[in-house]
TrEMBL record, chains A, B:
GO MF annotation list: ATP binding; ligase activity; metal ion binding
Protein name: Acyl-CoA synthetase
Membrane-spanning intervals of the chain: none
ATP-grasp domain ranges (all copies): 503-539
């Protein structure tokens, strides 16, 4: 629709040559007053025009009664004016040829149906003039890298706008301001921070795309309440990954309550959370729970982009704190580094032999407070080959004022750079007693945290990045007979398919099923059972019956002709009683495949991200071993193995108590099902919606077998 | 050994009439200098005597060359002197008749074998003079309630010693000092704080006992690295529970690494962690991960001792923060309160209809910044009947400077008391921008946190208190034939018992087992199978074979005479091959009991806490559904149900997918096994050590049955 490509508008927004502040004033209790003041006080180098109906200057800046009469056309207009006045202002900006407008004002789609109509109106006014919008219901843009502050947050009242290498795009404005304030205090800084609000026009991904290409940004952080375009998100994530630029995200809506809250906030719909998380894992977007730990991890990653973290060395002046830290680290799935003999020998110059180990209780040293003992300890530990990262948990100690600076100096990568040789997190568990120590770190360009748990959360999220896989390259199994394009005739059409038909589709994709034949009467059932070999299973075959067990339509453990006859009669009786309307086609006689584990393998077409395959424990355990794995279809076999590895049932595949299940078979089944899913989703002309359930996939020690399945295919609704 | 009962010595330590500071100086860089200064500057009202070989006064206090020549016998002596001088000082104190000495000095049992010898020496010197010791390797005692500071921590350099109602006993000194510093900054305060160090003489429980009886202490907090006397701990916990005084604990050693770190720190052995946690649950000791959240919860409990917390109302000026908070709350097992219609109607005066709900985005209000909108919102929410507690997550907002005070004032229980009507936690996500707001809360005697996760951790720990059960009152089942005393002849003696003998012992305690008979040959096996009815199981019976499956000694699913014969021969062949030395007594023919679930029920004599019963999922799932429940023996049936309820397998007992297992039978089995365990542990003269495994207990829909078991009984080693 628009002819202004987002890239150009975003470039302009992030570094405008001129800015008009609509509704500017001098009153610092008002948004319009702060907008103007912040732009001035943080050193904006472009042309500022204040729009105010009655004043000639404001805070020394020339003011104009209307945007029509500014001396030049402003690149960007920013407005925090009452909601009823926004439409007129947007019309004026559009008429004047402004490239992009930022609407701080709230009460649009976030405030109900009437606001939503107004929101659509201003977007269409803007589009018709090739103007782009940020917001509404946002807090604008802060760009320390460009010294551009188009943001009225009170967090910017304080002096100074430290420049960092972390770019941050947030769907919440207040959160951006809050994090900005806290970040400055603990030594975290940004290249750019953008609040996108309701995303009526420009959205989170537009700014992420900018940050991927931005040389001032080393790591991208995002706060997400709902994605406007999930597939674009996935594509950009792949691009960021390929560019080697880490992307981190906090996304509310992990829980039902959070999703509901996010919806009331910016009218975002969370979608299927588990699929979103699966896509993030596949595309290496690191999810965290807290914005502050996200910014902290991003800052560490900017210094150590290639480092993988799992083995942690802890040191602390308090043995108690060190023990608590060790607990937190191991509880978070990290592990305490095991120092080499060389490290222990070096530490033994300063510590008693039993304490020359991880964690290092620097309070327990045997030598005095030489100027450098703790720094030297840190240096020794940083050289340890088993140590990926250091955690310095700082408690009260007589040398508190300088102990952190000593460590920072000891660990410098080289004299010219404050960057440490190995990642280190500084945590102050103390209160203001340590403020001198905190200042020492800030002066050295190092950040710190004030809470052990935060530091461990940072390390745990960092650790999770280590298990990301190389990009998947799914290969169609050679004996999968179909390809998506032009073979509609070979794929199931719309409809609901029972066990028999679904087995056929699965069979065409090479999924192994147990042998079965349809019996029309008892005698035939006995004859088939004899051919298949005992034990067998009997199941009712009826198009009208979906849940066969629920109507008494399944009998297992049939070891003899007599048992088959008895079971046949019972099934017919049960079904006539519980499903009198169903037409019984006969009874399916099946070889009884005895697995050690029942699994479930399903596939469907996710509304946001397309075809996916889902797999995990089945049977009675289905919700108890609740974790389920999700991969996009078609799936890469290595990814499937990696996902199985995270499930509680994994030990059964690895060899456990004499059980070692058929991993290759399960992976093969999941991959084949994923190709069927991908082909269905791609089926011309528009793809199909579908739900496929292989339940159960029986898994034994050296084989596995789908013993029941169902498929439902429908038209795609998007 | 000692004739000074701990209670008297502890009373004296906590409020001494006179104190000698051994090694006192004026140098504030030295421990002895700070010890003297802190005592003076925090308003100690007793008699201070400085011990210094060369000075007549120190900081205006009379000094004496030796403790022999002080004008009165000091109640308490405190020393932070070089380790080689400690023995002489203890001898002098003992000779002088000092009631108790505090040894700050480290490098005793914490520093190796030589230090451990010295530690034993000073304890025996003290005991022979009826003197008690605190430490060594501690940071002494801080009692704001009594204005007694016997602690050299730099955390006390700052002015002020706020008095709270939380008593804290810590095995780590630096941790105590650190928490003290942080606590003061965020509005938390103590009645007393005691650091017990190596616990060479007086130990954590001595001071907990004091706090249980102390009227100035409403809630007890402890940092534990290892218990000197676990049974005393359990007894005191029961006493605190009966006294209605909450007891909270952080205990390092949750993980292997933490336990190792705690051991290096104060030479404490963690023992079996799971048993410790089970005892804490039974006796209502609340375990937390972080000392700060422990003190925060304790402070809230002091205001709201009877409140149970699970339904939380959140409000925040940031919708994003509110959504994140909702996620954290639900992830922590709490739940977001569902406001009543009345609450929503009242909120709708201030918020758009879609936002008049939980969480409340106070930034989204439709009215201006009236002085009282947020306070009024809090008041409305506090009146909501579904809301147990409030969480105010504070972000940047134009009214930041006063918004927290507004809320605190609005929620006052009555005009004279700052205590709120309902529990509320204030969290500042901002940095220093909110310092005015923080001061407002401190002036009102309210504490705050600076991290959302901490607040949620406090609420989650509070919530966990709600699931504590009333004290157990185990009743011996009427048909349990034995009682412990005087019936040694009826209990198994020392030895290892195979399946057959263990079944007998279980049978005497009324545990249901499946029918079985011993067959000496194939024909007999077929005959027995015919009598028991098919299907049957065959198991090798041999005293020499413990793991029957491992030698191919078990065959299941035998449905016919032919299958029994075949299985008989295969078992004999397998056993001869895999265990050629074993004497085969015959084969046990058993009815095959088909359960839906295999459980394991075990019992043993825990070295720390005595007889316990352990139960959970068995079979292949034993480590996958890893959670196991532990109860002390004999066990109360209601406790057993409550413990089962926490296990992942619980849905199977509650009714799940057509499965509803025999809960009453499982509980009955666990209780009966627990009585056998209790009787074994109590067996005269000294009790027995033992390990009993019922594995598996097969559980079906309406019954359950022990189908295999083993027992090992030994002499008690303690």
């Amino acid at each position: 629709m628009s002819t202004v490509v987002p890239e150009r508008a975003v470039q302009t927004l992030m570094n405008p040559a001129s800015v008009a502040v609509i509704g500017a004033s001098e009153d610092q209790h008002k948004y319009g007053g702060r907008l103007l003041k912040m732009l001035l006080s943080h050193g904006y180098r472009g042309h500022i025009m204040a729009i105010n109906p009655v004043r000639e200057t404001l805070l020394g800046v020339s003011a104009y009664p209307h945007i029509d009469v500014t001396p030049v056309v402003p690149d960007v207009a920013v407005m925090a004016i009452p909601q009823p006045k926004v439409r007129e202002a947007i019309e004026a900006c559009a008429a004047r040829g402004v490239t992009a407008a930022i609407v701080i004002t709230a009460r649009f789609s976030d405030g109900g149906a009437e606001g939503a109509v107004l929101e659509r109106d201003i977007v269409s006014i803007a589009r018709s003039a090739n103007m782009r919008l940020v917001g509404p219901n946002c807090l604008g843009i802060i760009s320390p890298a460009h010294r551009v502050v188009l943001c009225p947050s009170t967090a910017l009242v304080a002096e100074g706008l430290p420049v960092g290498r972390v770019g941050f795009v947030s769907q919440s404005g207040a959160l951006m301001g809050t994090i900005f304030d806290k970040a400055k205090e603990i030594g975290l800084a940004f290249s750019h921070a953008i609040s996108v609000g309701n995303q009526a026009d420009l959205e989170l991904c537009d700014f992420v795309e900018y940050l991927i290409g931005d040389p001032a940004t080393a790591v991208i952080c995002t706060y997400i309440e709902g994605l406007k375009d999930p597939r674009r998100f996935a594509e950009l994530a792949a691009r960021a990954r390929e560019a080697g630029k880490p992307w981190l995200a906090v996304s509310s809506g992990r829980t039902q309550a959070g999703a509901q809250a996010a919806f009331s906030h910016t009218a975002s719909v969370a979608g299927d959370r588990a699929v979103f998380e699966a896509v993030c894992r596949e595309e290496h977007v690191t999810l965290l729970d807290s914005p502050l730990t996200m910014i902290a991890l991003a800052t560490s990653l900017a210094d150590h982009p290639a480092t993988q973290v799992s083995r942690i060395a802890v040191f602390s002046p308090s043995g108690g704190e060190a023990a608590i830290a060790a607990d937190e680290i191991e509880s978070a799935g990290l592990r305490m580094a095991v120092f080499s003999d060389a490290t222990r020998t070096k530490l033994a110059d300063y510590y008693p032999p039993s304490q020359a180990a991880n964690p290092v209780d620097t309070g327990g040293r045997t030598v005095g407070d030489g100027p450098d003992v703790v720094g030297e300890s840190a240096r020794i530990v940083a050289d340890d080959p088993d140590t990926d990262a250091l955690l310095f948990a700082i408690t009260t100690t007589p040398t508190l004022h300088r102990v952190a600076s000593d460590v920072a100096d000891a660990l410098r990568r080289d004299p010219a750079s404050p960057t440490p040789r190995k990642p280190i997190l500084y945590v102050f568990e103390t209160g203001r007693l340590a403020d001198t120590a905190r200042r020492g770190l800030l002066e050295r360009g190092r950040y710190f945290l004030n809470n052990l748990r935060e530091a461990v959360d940072v390390l745990a999220a960092w650790h999770s990045r280590g298990s990301y896989l190389p990009p998947g390259r799914p290969v169609r199994p050679a004996d999968c007979p179909l390809t998506a394009a032009g073979c509609a005739a070979h794929l199931p059409g719309k409809g609901t398919y029972g066990e028999g038909a679904t087995r056929e589709w699965l069979g065409r994709y090479g999924v192994r099923t147990n042998e079965e034949r349809l019996a029309r009467d008892e005698d035939e059932a006995v004859a088939i059972a004899g051919e298949l070999g005992y034990p067998v299973v009997l199941k009712v075959a009826s198009a009208g019956i979906v849940h066969k067990s629920d109507v008494g339509g399944v009998k297992v453990d049939l070891y003899s002709d007599a048992m088959v006859r008895d079971a046949y009669r019972r099934i017919v009786t049960n079904v006539r009683e519980h499903a009198p309307a169903a037409v019984i086609d006969g009874l399916s006689v099946q070889t009884q495949f005895k697995g050690r584990l029942e699994m479930i393998v399903g596939a469907r077409c996710d509304a946001a991200f397309g075809p996916i395959v889902v797999f995990g424990a089945g049977g009675v355990l289905v919700d108890i071993l609740a974790a389920r794995a999700i991969a996009r279809a078609p799936a890469d076999p290595d990814h499937v193995i990696a996902l199985l590895r995270r499930l509680p049932l994994w030990p059964l595949f690895e060899g456990y108590r004499g059980v070692r299940l058929d991993l290759a078979g399960v992976v093969d089944t999941v991959v084949r099902v994923s190709w069927l899913a991908a082909d269905l989703a791609a089926r011309q002309p528009a793809g199909l919606d579908f739900e496929l359930d292989v339940n159960p996939l029986m898994v034994a020690d050296d084989t596995c077998c789908a013993v029941d399945a169902r498929l439902r295919v429908a038209a795609r609704s998007d």
